[in-house]
């Protein structure tokens, strides 16, 4: 039907989407995802597969896809990427497609938005994964790790930085320490010394990194530790076309002042062979001079002391080399030119009876020089990492590790399969360890040793120089040519003897191990200082990494590169999908029960979801209670399984149960709040009512008493008036008044006065009597 979506075959090896359209003339066409029109014949129709609606619209969790095929996954990722949605879940695994541009995804607002929210509550985001790690750590008191994988340039390093940014922000809300800032500032330093421009990525990490962030029990960052794995040393002396040496060289030469450069005898990058072998000095996306200032300020924060120019006094002149660069090198290494010349151009070896010194050919001498340069850089890098750890980790060494919780971020090497893969890769080192001898003898030895190993593919003929390794993603062929050279990192004892004489403390410090060892091995008539073999050391550090990881609860982030210059978007993503094992992950996660809890843990966490009328934990077993919870809360019998000691759940149910638990808890909290507030309010109401009654009572009593007293007073006066009137009437009635009048005429003046006075008294008494009558 018109408008319907179907799957059609394509040249990328998997079907792509296409939409049925009808032209005005009535002809039916298919318009595929790449915009190409295809005719639709009637006989074709039966073979077309209708697209599931979830694939038409796209889903934010690929477990929900109806078309659970490579094509389904690919279309979903590309569809979302086109809409600017770079993050997609696959259960709890996050797929991150590199946006190659700054999106407003990572602001403080976004941190606030995702903080405290469950995975799946909000659209997929790297902050949701960081939050989930943090929450799981705090909830289960268990260390977490994030395994971030993907091709070179897919965005692993940026992702690691974003997780760190998130954790630093939420920890910063809880305390005002400056440790978060110091941890964040270690990035520019590590990137300057350990990253370089490659043809795949302008800022490619050339070392493996495991950053463990330590939190106290309150969830505040207390420190961190960086572990580095196998820096690509060969880059210091050699770069492929269009690639650069490590950033720090270009940054320093572009950013240092003329005066600083003069003190250190530095020129421009293009003057140095080791910096210009790739024919690429500038990198368009980088500003070396600006980065230099950034590196210096980060170094200040991490308490690196300032670079000091070295004194050039006390230098003996020598005729060994007239080159200006040679003198400069000797001066910077703070050794006599003669000692440097000797160590570079001669080698001493032992016969049965004596020590013999032989000159080196020009090629041998430059090998010797390169080995020394690579060793210096590598050791300097290790020293820098340790120096950073001294600031961000040292405080924690005083307390036992168990007093902290941690989240580890593993940024593992980008994996690429070129037409020709150089054996310089660390992966080859992990497999085999590098023997002495030539490339051919090494290949021979490997072909013999690993003949029966199903992961090893021997060279097809004795003239072939390549061999294959069956990786998860497929067979990768490595060319053994130049293998030993690229991996040669043994520094000759002559060189070490030269280092012994240096006045440069840093140089002595970084070669401390070699200087303190007396273990000198003679191999091929050449004295080599034996420190623990590099591949052995690497294997040991990987073993301890594996141990640390397996003790943690892991989260996975798969970074994808959406395009590069040479391949179509879909083809490139398809390859990454296959290599990352995404489809298998989804199938396994869909089929399996990746979430598992012991009955006790499960019951402790989800006890609130249990109805005691259905199953009472006081009388029933933990297993029965767990079963009862699942029966009521999870739909579908097949969605969970009861084991002997644990309960197993499908991927999505962890989040669902958590949500239900939270809902239930907030309901219960509401009831508690309601009852508490009601109780509090009633108590205060009753107190107020009692007080009001007392007030009313007392007021009324007071008012009544006042009235009563007034009345009483009135009556008393009334009574006295009545009495006085009665007395007067009585007096008048007895005629006493007449005799008194006669007596009054006798005493006229006094009598007049007395009469007036008596009249007045009478008037007054009458007046009072009237008032009293009125008041009564
Ligand atoms: N989330 C993102 N937002 C914006 N740009 C990004 C993002 N992730 C990656 N990029 C861009 O892609 C580039 C390459 O990413 P990054 O260096 O993280 O890759 P990588 O996988 O670590 O590669 P390598 O294995 O070579 O070190 C970055 O320099 C940046 O320009």
TrEMBL record:
Q: What Pfam families would the database entry show?
A: IQ (PF00612), Myosin_head (PF00063), Myosin_VII_N (PF24123)
Q: Does the keyword Nucleotide-binding apply?
A: yes
The annotated regions of Basic and acidic residues compositional bias extend over 741-757
Q: What range(s) does the Myosin motor domain occupy?
A: 57-662
Write out the ranges of the annotated region (Disordered).
727-776
Which PROSITE patterns does this chain map to? IQ, MYOSIN_MOTOR
Positions contributing to ATP binding: 150-157
Record region (Actin-binding): 542-564
Q: Which SUPFAM superfamilies match?
A: P-loop containing nucleoside triphosphate hydrolases
Which cellular components does GO assign to this protein? myosin complex
Assigned keywords, A-Z: Actin-binding, ATP-binding, Motor protein, Myosin, Nucleotide-binding
Q: Which domain of life is it from?
A: Eukaryota
* GO molecular function ontology, one term from the record: cytoskeletal motor activity
Spell out where the chain crosses the membrane: none
- Family in the record: Belongs to the TRAFAC class myosin-kinesin ATPase superfamily. Myosin family.
User: What PANTHER family does this protein's entry cite?
Assistant: AGAP003327-PA, MYOSIN VIIA
- The name this protein goes by in its record: Myosin motor domain-containing protein
């Amino acid at each position: 039907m018109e408008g319907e979506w179907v799957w059609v075959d394509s040249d990328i090896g998997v079907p792509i989407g296409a939409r049925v359209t009808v032209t005005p003339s009535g002809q039916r066409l298919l318009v595929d995802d790449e915009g190409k029109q295809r005719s639709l014949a009637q006989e074709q129709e039966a073979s077309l597969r209708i697209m599931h609606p979830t694939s038409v619209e796209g889903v934010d969790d690929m477990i929900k896809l109806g078309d659970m095929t490579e094509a389904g996954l690919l279309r979903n990722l590309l569809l979302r990427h086109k809409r600017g949605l770079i993050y997609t879940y696959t259960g709890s695994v996050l797929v991150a497609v590199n946006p190659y541009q700054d999106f407003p995804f990572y602001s403080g607002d976004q941190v606030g938005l995702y903080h405290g929210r469950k995975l799946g509550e909000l659209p997929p985001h790297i902050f949701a994964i960081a939050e989930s790690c943090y929450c799981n750590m705090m909830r289960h008191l268990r260390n977490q790790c994030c395994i971030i994988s993907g091709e070179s340039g897919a965005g692993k390093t940026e992702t690691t930085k974003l997780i760190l940014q998130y954790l630093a922000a939420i920890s910063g809300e809880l305390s005002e320490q400056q440790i978060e800032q110091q941890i964040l500032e270690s990035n520019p330093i590590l990137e300057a010394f350990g990253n370089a421009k490659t043809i795949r990525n302008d800022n490619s990490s050339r070392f493996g990194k495991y950053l463990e962030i330590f939190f106290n029990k309150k969830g505040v960052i207390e420190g961190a530790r960086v572990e580095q794995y196998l820096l690509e040393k060969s880059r210091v002396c050699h770069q492929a076309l269009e690639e650069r040496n490590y950033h720090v060289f270009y940054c320093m030469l572009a950013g240092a002042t003329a005066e600083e450069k003069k003190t250190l005898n530095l020129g421009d990058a293009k003057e140095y062979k080791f910096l210009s072998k790739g024919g690429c000095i500038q990198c368009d996306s980088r500003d070396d001079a600006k980065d230099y200032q950034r590196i210096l300020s980060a170094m200040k924060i991490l308490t690196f002391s300032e670079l000091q120019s070295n004194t050039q006094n006390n230098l003996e002149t020598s005729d060994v080399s007239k080159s200006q660069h040679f003198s400069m090198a000797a001066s910077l290494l703070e050794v006599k030119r003669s000692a440097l010349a000797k160590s570079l151009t001669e080698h001493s070896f032992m016969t049965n009876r004596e020590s013999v010194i032989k000159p080196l050919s020009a090629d041998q001498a430059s090998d010797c020089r390169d080995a020394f340069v690579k060793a210096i850089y590598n050791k300097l890098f290790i020293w820098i990492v340790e120096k950073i750890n001294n600031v961000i980790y040292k405080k924690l060494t005083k307390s036992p590790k168990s007093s902290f919780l941690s989240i580890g971020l593993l940024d593992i090497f980008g994996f690429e399969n070129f037409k020709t893969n150089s054996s310089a890769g660390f992966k080859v080192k992990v497999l085999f360890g590098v023997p002495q001898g030539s490339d051919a003898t090494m290949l021979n030895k490997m072909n013999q040793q690993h003949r029966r190993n199903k992961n090893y593919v021997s060279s097809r003929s004795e003239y072939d120089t390549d061999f294959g390794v069956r990786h998860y993603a497929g067979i990768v062929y490595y060319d053994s040519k130049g293998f030993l050279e690229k991996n040669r990192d043994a520094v000759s004892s002559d060189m070490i003897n030269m280092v012994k004489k240096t006045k440069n403390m840093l140089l002595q410090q970084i070669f401390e191990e070699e200087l303190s060892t007396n273990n000198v091995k003679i191999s091929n008539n050449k004295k080599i200082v034996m420190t623990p073999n590099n591949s052995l050391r690497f294997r040991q550090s990987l073993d301890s990494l594996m141990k640390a990881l397996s003790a943690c609860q892991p989260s996975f982030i798969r970074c994808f590169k959406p395009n590069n210059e040479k391949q179509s978007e879909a083809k490139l993503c398809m390859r990454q999908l296959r290599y990352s094992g995404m489809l298998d992950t989804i199938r396994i996660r869909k089929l399996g029960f990746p979430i598992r809890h012991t009955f006790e843990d499960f019951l402790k966490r989800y006890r609130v979801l249990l109805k005691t009328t259905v199953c009472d934990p006081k009388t029933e077993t933990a297993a029965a209670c767990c079963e009862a919870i699942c029966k009521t809360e999870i739909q579908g019998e097949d969605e969970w399984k009861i084991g002997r000691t644990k309960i197993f759940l499908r991927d999505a149910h962890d989040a669902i149960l958590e949500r239900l638990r939270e809902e239930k808890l907030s309901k219960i909290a509401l009831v508690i709040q309601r009852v508490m507030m009601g109780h509090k309010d009633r108590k205060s109401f009753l107190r107020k009512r009692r007080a009001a009654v007392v007030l009313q009572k007392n007021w009324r009593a007071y008012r009544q008493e006042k009235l009563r007293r007034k009345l009483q007073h009135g009556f008393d006066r009334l009574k006295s008036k009545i009495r006085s009137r009665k007395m007067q009437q009585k007096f008048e009635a007895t005629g006493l008044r007449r005799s008194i009048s006669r007596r009054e005429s006798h005493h006229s003046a006094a009598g007049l006065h007395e009469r007036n006075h008596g009249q007045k008294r009478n008037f007054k008494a009458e007046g009072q009597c009237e008032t009293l009558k009125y008041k009564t």
